[in-house]
Automatic annotation (TrEMBL):
Belongs to the TUB family. One of its GO terms (biological process) is protein localization to cilium. It comes from Caulochytrium protostelioides. One of its GO terms (cellular component) is cilium. Pfam families: Tub (PF01167). Residues 1-78 form the Tubby C-terminal domain. This is Tubby C-terminal domain-containing protein.
Length: 84
């Protein structure tokens, strides 16, 4: 099983890279991400994004447990934890 971050696509309309969160995320943020299955880029196993200033939302499904998903989401707040 191979999972990875979904790459954003360039939007001519906004002139920026975007991900489709299907209405679940309200604000652009470097902390927003989607983790997808390697063989099916439409299978979003985990998505995390900003709703407002310090309010975030997370959607999770197989193969992640809630505990693992929360751990991954928390890592987005401190990038040095992932790099060291």
């Amino acid at each position: 099983l191979v999972l990875h971050n979904k790459s954003p696509q360039w939007s001519q309309e906004t002139e920026s890279f975007v991900l489709n969160f299907h209405g679940r995320v309200a604000m652009a943020s470097v902390k927003n991400f989607q983790i997808v299955h390697d063989m099916d880029l439409e299978y979003i196993a985990l998505q995390f994004g900003r709703l407002s200033g310090d309010v975030f939302t997370m959607d999770v499904r197989f193969p992640f447990s809630i505990l693992r998903a929360v751990g991954i989401a928390l890592c987005s707040f401190e990038p040095k934890l992932v790099c060291e």
